[in-house]
Write a structure and sequence with these properties.
It is built from 16 helices and no strands. The chain has 411 residues and is mostly helical. The protein has one domain: Na+/H+ antiporter like fold (Up-down Bundle), CATH 1.20.1530.20. α3 crosses α6, α3 packs parallel to α10 and α9 packs antiparallel against α10.
């Protein structure tokens, strides 16, 4: 009886996967015809087929299978983003990147927290907790958008890199504020900075070491004996980088991003692959990343709680408007202007103000707070979903239009 029940669950899961792949494929074609980023269509389709509407797919946010898809999918998409980063570009903008991924998260969280305090009437510490949850940008959304829309290199790569590096800061800040909100700790800026530094360095080291080893095993003239297994090596190393960093209490997402950067810049490290070998590996990464996007954003759409969102809809929309139109611009200008080396133009900074989609990582943090029964967790989850929907549906769909207006598109 037990094995029969397990078999039925396996069949049902397989059916759900088939539905997601089938609907996702047609959604991708629809996105291409409509000339919008595919994550937008995936999210909308997910809302349509979820339990709140048609009920075709119902995978709970706290289920093991959902967490597996979230962790591996986000990691692989982030690896894909890292592989497209050029080290010579990062050298020009590293000051902005460090400031915006650390201090920038604090600025965004504080301004959003103040907005939540006034519009939702929450205790300030709970409002600040809401601000910290939505403060980090989302690599699973941003990387695909910039893969599909060709933006000026240094702008696209700064925003993608920020989304990788500020994940650690957002998570650390969230749990520091949560400790205060639950009465189990006091806020210590020194401790938070130390924890961030530790997580960042360990994550970078693990990702860098694994990335270099992967480049050796795939591309080295003498030791590259795994060249024909290059796609499998990327899968193993993404899992290894995430789990290794997570086991060392560091940022797994930062580790996979740095791994991608190392592998994507193998030629700069002295390794060479033929054009055909590069093409085969890129095709595999492209296809795998597409499948991960389908699963992540269709499932994210199915998990939108319409009843919960409706409870705090208008106040939540007001908070998100401040978040998008005040917190982000203030953050960008305060963090990018001091970087004289990068010499950011007004148009470039204006574009960065508009590209800060919220997605998987904030959604996962909000879900964790609900599971922990944190103060104001349901309100935080509601506003987080409103932020996800508004930023993806409004900002992601207008990215290409704005880039064209600001003359930042490249052929």
């Amino acid at each position: 009886m037990e094995s029969s029940a397990s078999l039925e669950i396996a069949k049902h899961t397989l059916l759900v996967f088939g539905i997601i792949l089938g609907i996702g494929t047609f959604s991708g074609l629809l996105a291409r015809l409509a000339r919008v980023p595919d994550v937008v269509v995936f999210l909308l389709i997910g809302m349509l087929i979820g339990p709140g509407m048609l009920g075709f797919v119902d995978i709970k946010a706290d289920s093991t299978i959902n967490q597996l898809i979230l962790i591996f999918g986000s990691s692989y998409i982030l690896f894909d983003g890292g592989a497209s980063i050029k080290l010579k570009v990062l050298k020009q903008v590293w000051i902005t990147l460090v400031i915006i991924a650390t201090i920038g998260v604090l600025i965004t969280a504080f301004i959003t927290g103040v907005a939540a305090y006034y519009f939702l009437g929450l205790p300030f510490i709970v409002a600040l907790l809401l601000g910290t949850v939505v403060a980090s940008t989302d690599p699973a959304t941003l990387v695909p958008v910039f893969k599909q829309i060709k933006i000026k290199d240094r702008v696209a790569q700064t925003v993608m890199s920020e989304s990788a590096f500020n994940d650690a800061m957002g998570a650390i800040l969230t749990f520091v504020v949560l400790g205060v909100a639950m009465g189990s700790g006091e806020f210590s800026l020194g401790d938070a900075v130390l924890e961030l530094f530790k997580e960042s360095i360990i994550g970078i080291l693990i990702g860098g070491i694994l990335g270099y080893l992967a480049a050796v095993l795939i591309s080295h003239e003498k030791f590259g004996f795994l060249l024909e297994y290059a796609p499998v090596v990327t899968l193993m190393a993404v899992i290894g980088a995430y789990m290794g960093a997570d086991g060392a209490h560091a940022s797994g997402f930062m580790a996979v991003f740095v791994f991608g950067v190392m592998l994507g810049n193998a030629e700069s490290l002295g390794f060479k692959r033929t054009r055909e070998e590069n093409h085969e590996l890129e095709d595999f990464i492209l296809t795998t990343a597409l499948i991960m996007r389908m699963f992540i954003f269709i499932l994210l759409g199915t998990q939108v709680d319409f009843a919960l969102m409706n409870q705090y809809l208008w106040a939540g929309v007001a908070v998100v408007v401040v978040f998008m139109l005040v917190a982000r611009p203030v953050t960008v200008f305060l963090c990018a202007l001091p970087d004289r080396r990068a010499k950011w133009s007004f148009k470039e900074m204006l574009f960065m103000c508009w590209t800060r989609e919220t997605g998987v990582i904030p959604g996962a943090l909000a879900g964790m707070l609900v599971g922990m029964k944190a103060p104001g967790a349901e309100i935080i989850a509601s506003v987080t979903f409103i932020a996800i929907l508004m930023t993806i549906l409004i900002q992601a769909t207008t990215t290409k239009w704005l880039a064209k207006k600001l003359d930042l598109l490249v052929e």
